Amino acid sequence: MRELLQDLVDAASGHASYADARHVLARVEDVALRNGELDLLDRREEEGIGVRVRVKGAWGFAAARGSGRAAGEDALARALALAEAQPAAGGERALTLEAPASGSHAGPCEVDPFEVSLDRKLELLAQADAALRREPLVSVARAQVSSRSEEKTFASSDGALYEQRVVECGGGLAAIAVDESGAQVRSYPGSHSGHIAQAGWEHVVELDLAGNAPRVAAEAAALLSAPVCPSDRTTLVLAGEQLGLQLHESVGHALELDRVLGGEASYAGTSFVPADGVGVMRFGSEHMNVTADATLLGALGSFRWDDEGVEAQAVPLVGEGVLRGFLSSRESAAEIGLNRSAGCMRAEGFARQPIVRMTNVSLDPGAAGTLDELIAATQRGIYMETNRSWSIDSRRLHFQFAGEAAWEISDGRLGRMLRDPVYAGTTPRFWGGLDAVCSPSEWALASVTNCGKGEPGQLASVSHGSAPARFRDVLVGSG
Predict the structure, then answer these.
(1) Percentages helix, strand, coil for the chain, rounded to the nearest 5?
(2) What is the pLDDT, as a whole number, of residue 89?
(3) Band of residue 338 on the pLDDT scale cut at 50, 70, 90
């Protein structure tokens, strides 16, 4: 495969100023039980070659299934034809320079999940499902595990030639409790497929789905009789997946440089952040420090090299509340005068061209101690966890998020559980209200597995690290 891809980019060199070729073999398995019955069993495998070329500033991309020379040569011919058929680009912009990627890489995986028997997976899910349904008010119980692997070989006309393999695995629970008042849901470890990591089957074992099921079911039932979250401007403490999703939607997407430059305007939208804002634009308070890091062990947005051969790196995005950088490609970085790409080009499988995707966008830990200490230092407010829904405008400015559950904070203690919590705001004002972030001991990763972008659409997985954080003067209510 290395030889074939090298031959393809060599053949393209006589026609294109740049070319790259990727061979991808991807495997997926999703298994779920719902109320003791098999709800999902999805196993599939895809293999193919994608070729991307640049001719007089215009890009062409094409893909073909399989791994043979004929498939690769067909993809190359169609990619060249597409690039040559496009209108003149008005001068070819340079790409940022990058040392050629070379070598092999494998992500963490102790126990290959594809070697674990289906019977063993179903047994684990059955135990968790049964534990959820022991709560009489739980009408729907669901337990799932997911496994993915991707083996990739990449070559470029710049001299890059590498191989890498990553394995993603994890799972989660959901309990829906119902009575005459309506329905309430509680999820574990989160509502976006539970928790998925770059890891093997050992990660599923560590999640202890069956052990956490009784608490999840009890909280779903308790929410039915809990009072609604009161409407007020108040202090809000966010933790876990909810804070991760806030980072994803209002920071990560807002700082994708292709959106900032208008390249995604017709589908994913634009951004309220100006391209010339680095070093001058205030994004949040002095407690806000955000880093995009593709080197984080176990995170879904981690790799050794991206899909145009740029090595993984940690990129400061916000420092002490001020904009410090963007998520970029070699082309978009060069367009605004940056010396190097942030290494954010990724594609779903072999049949999609790489586009700017966020890596692991995380809120750096602060010095506010543990969650208990942060609550104790908060006189009055709301503590919220686990996302239930979200909405944000196309510029990533105005947003509204709903959580599965919240708790009242009174005199530095957690009080009543509250149902249907919602909060809303505008991005700079919300992050401007950040006044405390818990210490490194509380920092953890949350996962998002369904981030959509691009035309035609493609999905990406990413993780977001954070410690619980406190925001002042937030509009909170009930949805």
Answers:
(1) 25, 40, 35
(2) 65
(3) very high
Q: Is the dihedral of CA 376, 377, 378, 384 positive or negative?
A: negative
Q: How confident is the model at residue 164 (pLDDT cuts 50, 70, 90)?
A: very high
**138 near 177, Cβ under 8 Å?**
yes
Average pLDDT over residues 142-169: 98
- As for how many domains the chain has, the answer is 2
Q: What is the pLDDT of residue 172?
A: 98
Q: What is the pLDDT of residue 104?
A: 97
Q: What average pLDDT is seen over the chain?
A: 97
Report the pLDDT value the prediction gives residue 92, as an integer from 0 to 100: 80
User: Model-level pTM greater than 0.90?
Assistant: yes
Question: Which DSSP letter does residue 253 get?
Answer: G
Integer Cα distance of 218 and 174 in angstroms: 12
Domain finish residue from 209, 225, 241: 225
Location of structure tokens 């169609």: 78
Around Cβ 232, how many Cβ atoms within 10 Å?
Answer: 13
- Using CA atoms, how far apart are residues 427 and 251, in angstroms rounded to an integer? 8
Residues 204 and 345 in one domain: no
Phi, psi of 433 (to 5 degrees): -85, 0
3-class secondary-structure state, position 199: coil
Percent of the chain with pLDDT over 70: 100
Query: What residues make up the domain containing 395?
Result: 232-478
Domain end residue (candidates: 225, 249, 276): 225
Q: How are beta strands 398-410 and 413-418 bridged, if at all?
A: antiparallel
Instruction: Clarify whether residues 180 and 238 are in a common domain.
Output: no
Residues 331 and 207 in one domain: no
Peptide bond into 421 cis (omega under 30): no
Give the gyration radius of the chain's Cα atoms.
23
The Cα 126–Cα 174 span in angstroms is 13
The mean pLDDT of 355-361, rounded to a whole number, is 97
Same structural domain, 251 and 208:
no
Whichever domain contains 158, its CATH number is: 3.30.2290.10
In tens, the pLDDT along 210-262 reads: 999 999 999 999 999 999 999 999 999 999 899 999 999 999 999 999 999 99
249 in helix, strand or coil? helix
Q: What is the DSSP track for 405-473? A: EEEEEETTEEEEEEBSEEEEEEHHHHHHTEEEE--GGG-EEEEEEEEEETTTTEEEEEEEEE--EEEEE
